[in-house]
Amino acid sequence: MLDAVRAGEKSSAVAMTNWHERLYLAWTGTDTHLRLAWSPDARNIVDTRRLDQQSYTVGGGQYATSREPVAPALAGSAEHLYLAWTDTDHGINILADPENSRGAPVRLEEASSHNPPALCSHQGTLVLAWTGTDHRTNILADPRAYAAHPSG
Questions:
Q1: Considering the entire predicted model, what is its pTM?
Q2: Selecting from 2.60.40.1940, 1.20.120.530, 3.30.1330.60, 2.120.10.70, what CATH number does the domain 11-148 have?
Q3: Closest among 125, 44, 34 to 73, alpha carbons compared
Q4: Is residue 93 very low, low, confident or very high in pLDDT (cuts 50, 70, 90)?
């Protein structure tokens, strides 16, 4: 038996990052709601939160109605922890500081995908990558600034 910690619920794929000396985990629960948890030592999960946001895609063909959970992405920069996910309309969303219950996600209107996004912090800038619905790889530096000013 592995000496592992369990979050106590089933999920789709998990995203993980280290930020401010904490290990953060994010996943999509079986109810399609995003979850966020953190651990100070990778041995104990201190806090788990169910977020209002949902991450799933409709699967199974043209007339399908089944929901398939899609994994979120996590990244930490100097100031913020970021969570990104694909919603039911295949739009990509980013939430800064998902621990803050008053935070509002930013939706990238021109970014859409049937797959989960990838997220990282590089040279002080948040970078988002995703496979578009046209099956091409897209990379966008500072997506939150783009979402605020899409014409720029």
A1: 0.82
A2: 2.120.10.70
A3: 34
A4: very high
